[in-house]
Prior knowledge:
Elements (H helix, E strand, L loop, with lengths): L1 H10 L1 H21 L12 E7 L5 H17 L4 E9 L2 E8 L5 H13 L13 E2 L8 E9 L4 H17 L4 E7 L4 E7 L1 H6 L4 H11 L3 E8 L2 E7 L6 H5 L2 E5 L2 E4 H4 E7 L7 E2 L2 E2 L1 E7 L5 H18 L4 E9 H31 L2 H24 L6 H34 L8 H19 L1
Antiparallel strand pairs: 1-3, 1-4, 2-3, 5-15, 5-16, 6-15, 7-12, 8-9, 10-11, 13-14
Amino acid sequence: MLNKIISYSLKNRLLVLLCAALLTLGGAFIASDMEVDVFPDLTAPTVVVMTEAHGMAPEEVERLVTFPIETAVNGATNVRRVRSSSSAGFSIVWVEFDWGTDIFKARQIVSEKLITIGAGLPVGVGTPTLAPQSSIMGEILLIGLTSDSTSMMDLRTIAEWTIRPSLLATGGVSQVTTIGGDFKQYQILVNPGKMKYYHVTLTELMESCKGMNSNATGGVMYEYSNEYIIRGLGRTSDILEIGKSVIKVINDYPVKLEDVAEITIGSAQKLGYSSLNGKPAVILTVLKQPNTNTLVLTQKIDENIANLKKSLPAHINIDTHIFRQSDFIESSINNVQKALLEGSFFVIIVLFVFLMNFRTTIISLVAIPISLLISIIALKIFGYNINTMSLGGMAIAIGALVDDAIIVVDNAYKRLRLNARREPHERQDDSMVIFNATKEIMASILNAT
């Protein structure tokens, strides 16, 4: 088999050169378009199920929420492992599938299983939801918002309602989490004394608050061949208008919300805190979807942030260099590329010193880029990406790649020189000399490699 390959290559040298050129061009194109990451994703396809259970202790969450979900998904197709975490008022279940399972098929299987347990969960427990699909190395960017004149409440509001939707609209972003700042709330601070005076119970107050801030439909009115839509507009963000909401009527006198409570804008109870360089800040954590090029996605996010800055107040500072996974990737890739270039440089010197022939040196060196590009094509075919581990393996493999080429070329070069010293009538054709020289060591090289 090897002899036929060698013979065919020698007889069709132009075809071999053409194939090498096509492999080089194809490999270069694929390399420029491949996903680049720090490390390979070594996590099996995983679906995360999250459920809110307000007011429940961890033991209740485990028994009444987490266990039914685990039982439902345990028998699903291709499930290899189920893990869970139950805390006060919250349940998380990780459903891991077999390697190679399509993640979208896995999410569909879990969704179908969750439908069967919806009615069996306790009253007040939220509907189990699937977390956005993200990579294990998904945290690609931290964005910090600071300001000397804007309050932390306004800063959090801008982050939640302006910056976060813009980031989520970027193709490749899986999830954006907001940390820090003051979460804005419309708070109703009731006065027990006034409630007693106006004979208003807490239940009446709660029922009134549930339906007060909403619009209502009034049907349609026809007049002079025109159709008019009638609406009752009750939705407002003005605390004075909210205070005018009626709770009940006593002796034809309406008891309003402002009569028994103070309506104000305040911040929710803090569950966490964030700072940047020792100053209070709002931090946005950006997670990417699987199989997304981190470098390209980071560039898109930078462009979106640059456009957002034009519409935001000038005194709001947006720092996108707190943590950038792209910086680690570029640094790691540059280090490995430097090792590849340095290794190739020293290989050139050593080859030329020992062979003392320009043509044989070039032929041996051609094996390096072609082999590396074929490796990248193989990675693409098998669905892997370029990372520091794969590039590190390529850097280590340079010695083996060049070693095979050196041995073949050196033996062929030696046989050609011996053939040139023979008498004219004893000389063999150069192609035959190269064929015999390659054939006598090819089996040994193949076994050694």
